[in-house]
Design goal:
- This protein is about 35% helix and about 15% strand.
- The protein is an alpha/beta fold.
- The longest helix is centred in the C-terminal third of the chain and has 22 residues.
């Protein structure tokens, strides 16, 4: 029996997608083999891969002057590849808003000089620095930020304005709502939250930026080489690509990103409203910067944390434990987490609160 999964990643995948994959697992169409056994060079697989790429382009309305890459290594590898490819001995600007932007900045600092344009670490990453407080470099190679900090539950609902090429890690927010891709020089995202299974990484890079990339790097670390080979420089994560294509098709069937954004807004709204009206739970994040995907909440009596987690697990609510660096609880309510799951969580929270008053 499937239960409600609130994992931050790898995260829930739409049941419709899982059922389709289950039906096709032994033999894909009339190929005589599983999709996992199929050559990535075959015409069948290339057709499937190209459709997935086009569906992603359609969903995000990606302009023609962008390359859409299906890579490996997770968002974490991009923390290094981005400065390797684009810094070229210039300073790189980083906005520090949580654990993942800090990791990205630390990796970049091993490769190039880094300027922290602003940081909210002093307030434990519970808010985002304002635009007027950003201290940009005069001639930065790029400006990097994380659109949604999965651990702290912090989000920038509008991209910062920068005079440098804007690069965003959107791992935990991509495909949750419409975005204007043309505002960015690069968007990247690990798949294991809103896209599909772990193992795939999406990179969307403006050709103008890609043309500036260094070419004296090892081949596998060059974005341009991946672009020139249609993301098949080596064997790609074929099953994850296939599954992601099914997720893209599922999103299109719902009505695209406008439709899923309405669902996500409703889910987040009712959960935050319940937390805010309670004097038993609280959310530490500034209301203007609250994530719609990752909602941390803390019991005012932390002695009850273990009991809350055990009883919620027994009630069929999985993976609610907050990250070890933050504590408390965290409900990740990505696209594939339905309204019924959020309703079930709130019902449990009400019962638990009533029991321990």
């Amino acid at each position: 029996m499937r239960k409600w999964n609130f994992s931050a990643g790898p995260a829930a995948i739409p049941e419709e997608v899982l059922s389709e994959a289950q039906a096709e697992l032994l033999e894909w169409k009339d190929s005589g083999m599983s999709i996992m056994e199929m050559s990535h060079r075959s015409s069948e697989y290339k057709s499937l891969a190209n459709k997935a790429r086009q569906d992603l382009i359609d969903l995000l309305n990606i302009p023609n002057d962008y390359q859409v890459l299906f890579l490996q290594g997770g968002a974490t590898l991009q923390f290094s590849m981005i400065p390797m490819n684009f810094a070229d001995q210039k300073i790189a600007d980083y906005l520090l808003t949580g654990s993942w932007s800090k990791k990205a900045m630390n990796e970049a600092s091993k490769i190039t000089e880094v300027n922290i344009v602003a940081s909210s670490e002093a307030c434990n990453f519970t808010e985002v620095p304002s635009q007027e407080n950003l201290n940009e470099s005069e001639d930065a190679a790029y400006f990097h930020y994380v659109a949604n900090e999965t651990i702290q539950g912090i989000a920038l609902h509008q991209p910062p304005k920068s005079k440098s090429p804007l690069i965003a890690d959107m791992s935990s927010v991509v495909l949750s709502e419409p975005i204007d891709v043309s505002k960015f020089s690069m968007i990247y995202a690990g798949a294991q939250k809103n896209i599909g299974p772990a193992g795939l990484t999406i990179c969307i890079i403006k050709q103008e930026l890609l043309d500036t990339a260094l070419t004296d790097l090892p081949t596998m670390l060059q974005y341009s080489e991946h672009a020139n080979s249609d993301s098949m420089l080596n064997t790609p994560p074929t099953f994850a690509w296939y599954m992601s294509g099914k997720v893209f098709a599922w999103l299109k069937s719902l009505g695209g990103l406008e439709a899923i954004a309405k669902i996500n807004n409703t889910k987040a709204k009712i959960l935050y409203e319940y937390i805010d009206q309670s004097d038993f739970y609280f959310n530490p994040v500034s209301k203007d910067n609250r994530s719609k995907m990752n909602i941390p909440f803390i019991l005012k009596n932390s002695d009850l944390d273990v009991e809350f987690l055990q009883e919620s697990y027994n009630a069929g609510l999985l993976n609610l434990k907050g990250h070890r660096s933050v504590g408390g609880m965290r409900a990740s309510i990505y696209n594939a987490t339905p309204q019924d799951a959020v309703d079930a969580l709130i019902s449990f929270m009400e019962e638990f609160e009533s029991k321990h008053r």
